[in-house]
Amino acid sequence: MKPALSVIKIGGNIIEDSTELSRFLSSFSRVQGPKILVHGGGKKATSLSEKLGIKPSMVKGRRITDAQALEVAIMVYAGLVNKTIVSKLQALQCNALGLSGADAAVIKAIKRPVKSIDYGFAGDIVSIRTKTLLSFLETGLVPVFCALTDDGQGQLLNTNADTIASELAIALSSEYRTTLYYCFEKPGVLANVYDEASVISHINKQAYYSLLREKQISEGMLPKLENCFHALDHSVHKVCIGDITMLQAKSSNFTTLTL
Amino acid sequence: MKPALSVIKIGGNIIEDSTELSRFLSSFSRVQGPKILVHGGGKKATSLSEKLGIKPSMVKGRRITDAQALEVAIMVYAGLVNKTIVSKLQALQCNALGLSGADAAVIKAIKRPVKSIDYGFAGDIVSIRTKTLLSFLETGLVPVFCALTDDGQGQLLNTNADTIASELAIALSSEYRTTLYYCFEKPGVLANVYDEASVISHINKQAYYSLLREKQISEGMLPKLENCFHALDHSVHKVCIGDITMLQAKSSNFTTLTL
Lengths: 259, 259
Fold this sequence. Notes:
The structure is a homodimer of 259-residue chains.
Chain A: E1 4-10, H1 12-16, H2 18-30, E2 35-39, H3 44-51, E3 57-59, E4 62-64, H4 67-91, E5 96-99, E6 107-111, E7 123-128, H5 130-138, E8 142-145, E9 148-150, E10 156-158, H6 161-172, E11 177-183, E12 202-203, H7 205-213, H8 221-233, E13 238-242, E14 255-257
Parallel strand pairs in A: 1-2, 1-11, 2-8, 5-8, 11-13, 12-14
Antiparallel strand pairs in A: 3-4, 6-7, 9-10, 13-14
Helix pairs in contact in A: 3-4, 6-8
């Protein structure tokens, strides 16, 4: 049997709150076996933009990554957030290696093609250099990815962290039995969005389709679940969605997704 | 004989100017054999601080890294400057891996002890994890270091880029015949600081001492040369000081230092 690998993505709200972040990193550092962390940016980029007097660029109600927004994203995601996490993990004896997709050319992307909207410097993932990642994991390093990639031609690109996590998990499933964790502020997928006790403990593809038909899935959760089943359809073993208690050995209060 | 290694440090003025930076990176990408780049931060950190209304903290005429200055340094050095360089090098088929000292715990430092001045979050290098660096170099990766380290206890520290370069060169001299390059805006060590044609082509230790006695070395060059002879005293094969033409095969207009 292939060895196990954990690919864990943390959301912006956990990064925001330094106590929550410390609690998360402490749990993360105790996860056994090879593992990868992917982090979003959170509101720090928004607050830096505001301080610099940069207004968010919007087209048809969608946020666009213009040149200024990209520069802020690079400073906050690859700089402040990534290095803070790496340093804190090192203090927990977890040998973190901070990465953007450009580093060691691990993730190659293209600037999102313009259809009805020009998203600016937004990247869609094209390929993952699995061999390089394997060599990092085999030497005991713990890759920590920020939500940036590049196009191999010198252009950095803002890239969705959920997608980075699922594409990494898919690419590494050839060598590992991969579990993908989406860790955010809610305890899991909720049957009733207003009731945090209504966590659905297990969703398979059949249940997913019936939740879709019954329009039971909240707006924000839809792309997340789509991403999860895309990963499961591409050889990822299991996907888990929950809050930071999910990574603790005794926790059972989260949502597990399988085919 | 040991294989050759180039450790190349570029100064802030080259980073400032995007045309100069592109010219430098193009030369750097053509340097044969294993190599490491170390970059300073340049004035981008100062200009970001100004935009954010952060005043530089000074004690006894010395610049101090307070918490705000450290945050700016992390965003600019590890974020904007490092990832821009990494992405540009990837476009030149140079497999760059951006690093701070915290990443893979490659450089361990301590907060500079307070004597007459408290420099704040300034780091002095304690040790280099040579084995990890060797494994990166052996797989063809090109480490690109920004001027940040950490103390292994979760505290990032602002660290002199010249010192990072010389300590890396020293640590790797056990395995490589290492040449250390200091690449800045001047063509080398000048006999007359006002005359750029007065490059001293070779300085050995004896010549260095006589330049010191004659007070011929400019204020700004003194710590640089001290650093160079410290490296040579600790097994570094050769140190070269010059502008970006220095890395070109046919260039001979720069200063070489040997014992």
